[in-house]
Design goal:
54 residues, globular, 2 helices, alpha+beta, 3-stranded antiparallel β-sheet
Length: 54
């Protein structure tokens, strides 16, 4: 399976890191399987998002 991008973009890296931490903390009930990698990425317009890889 390829990358899965979270549907919300935020303005700062801090907000994206907080969103990443919430996703990592909710692995038990949010997803049926645990992602191998959860990371923060930056778009070409300067906004940040969270991506996961299974």
């Amino acid at each position: 399976m390829g990358w899965v991008y979270y549907l919300r973009l935020v303005n700062t890296k801090f907000q994206a890191d907080c969103l990443k931490a919430r996703i990592e903390d909710a692995e038990g009930w949010l997803f049926r399987s645990v992602p191998k990698y959860i990371g923060v990425y930056r778009t070409s317009k300067g906004r940040y998002g969270v991506k996961m890889h299974w």
